[in-house]
Design a protein that fits this description.
- It is a single chain.
- With about 375 residues, the chain is an alpha/beta fold.
- It folds into two domains: about 50-280, Rossmann fold; about 280-378, Magnesium chelatase subunit I, C-Terminal domain (Helicase, Ruva Protein, domain 3), CATH 1.10.8.80.
- It has 13 helices and eleven strands.
- It has a five-stranded parallel beta sheet. Strands 3-4 form a two-stranded antiparallel sheet. Strands 6-7 form a two-stranded antiparallel sheet.
């Protein structure tokens, strides 16, 4: 998730007394927009706060409470899922940006458990849908069902009517069903017989793909891949992490019963709403905006790339960088924030030339080259 040397903003370093501490306050104001690097102190005696100032103070307090709640999320998820801290951060970024996540990893690395645990820790509803070759669009979105008692059709909601939808093995279902999910992801609504039904808020899709087995699959088209905010890889655990998994199961942990691990809500939809409002206020200086554009344009001209990042990818990189900066405690985006989130935001948007793939070149390698050659704002 993070590049070497980049701190994960959900990580809270321990204080000297052993209690959870806070990240060091940001001191980089060089790339802060005018007015973004300075906060206004509340009015004191003789300087009463105006209505706007009081409202801003309440908003700031709510944002700080939301940030603290989301930072507690990693510790809570770690009670049930071991060694996937970066993916937890990515899921939080997606929730803050109202984006969707493409998860890749071999079977058995706790993708389903991760989504369920995050939903439980955020007090959200979660559902899982197994995509198969015979899955129909109505199985995803819902359909009209005839009720003989009333002699009328009633709408039966599909599994997309939830907060976190785990679309398991999305590339095993035909394009027709994939297209039904596309409207849900983009429009956040379901249209049946001309009637529009909005989905709950928040709503994100966490879709999984098996990176090893491709027989009998339907590769996602670029138009649908571009709808995913982030592409996250769930690695195999280290030896120590795997030992931790075994110890937990030996002690009686049941992945079907999260209560046995002591998972409880540490944040709420209200915290997410306050966090989103705070992220929207994060400032971005003109040179950093130009840097984001230059990075994405450079992917389009890379020799190994057939299709580079689209304008939607530019917007996604901006949104993810703002959320990353806010989680880190800054009110403005720095070039390092952009670099930290560039790989998971852009790598699934690049289509390599066939000859480049034959030579073993990867989208990650292309992005490494782009990040190393595009001048960084000073």
């Amino acid at each position: 998730m993070t590049r070497p040397g980049t701190a994960d903003p959900l990580y809270t370093a321990p204080a000297s007394d052993g209690t959870p501490g806070q990240p060091e306050p940001a001191t980089d104001t060089e790339h802060a927009p005018t007015g973004a690097a300075h906060s206004h102190a509340p009015g004191g005696i003789g300087h009463p706060q105006s209505g706007d100032e009081a409202g801003q103070a309440r908003a700031d307090a709510g944002a700080e409470e939301a940030r603290a709640a989301l930072r507690r999320l990693r510790t809570e998820v770690a009670k049930a899922v071991v060694g996937q801290d970066g993916v937890v951060t990515g899921m939080v970024l997606a929730l803050l940006c109202r984006g969707h996540v493409l998860l890749e990893g071999v079977p058995g690395v706790a993708k389903t458990l991760l989504v369920r645990t995050i939903a439980a820790a955020l007090d959200l509803d979660a559902k899982r849908l197994q995509f198969t070759p015979d899955l129909m669009p109505g199985d995803v979105t819902g359909s009209l069902v005839f009720d003989p008692r009333t002699a009328a059709f009633t709408f039966r909601e599909g599994p997309v009517f939830t907060n976190l939808l785990l679309a398991d093995e999305i590339n095993r279902t035909p394009p027709k069903t994939q297209a039904a999910l596309l409207e849900v992801m983009e429009e956040r609504q379901v249209s049946v017989e001309g009637s529009r039904r909005p989905l709950p808020d928040p709503f994100i899709v966490a879709a999984t793909q098996n990176p090893i087995e491709f027989e009998g699959t339907y590769p996602l088209p670029e138009a649908q891949l571009d709808r995913f905010l982030l592409n996250l890889t769930m690695p195999l655990p280290t030896r120590d992490e795997e030992l931790g998994v075994l110890r937990a199961h030996h002690a009686g942990f049941d992945p079907r019963e999260l209560a046995t691990a002591g998972v409880r809500p540490v944040a709420s939809p209200a915290h997410l709403a306050a966090a989103r409002a705070a992220v929207s206020r994060v400032g971005v200086a003109e040179p950093v905006l130009g840097y984001i554009v230059d990075l994405c344009r450079a992917t389009r001209h890379a020799p190994a790339v057939e299709l580079g990042a689209s304008p939607r990818g530019v917007i996604a990189l901006l949104s993810a960088a703002k959320a990353w900066a806010w989680l880190a405690g800054r009110d403005h985006v720095t070039p390092d924030d952009v670099k930290a989130i560039a790989r998971p935001t852009l790598r699934h948007r690049l289509r390599l030339r066939p000859e480049a793939e034959l030579e073993g070149i990867t989208a990650g390698a292309v992005l490494d080259a782009v990040l190393g050659t595009v001048p960084t704002p000073r």
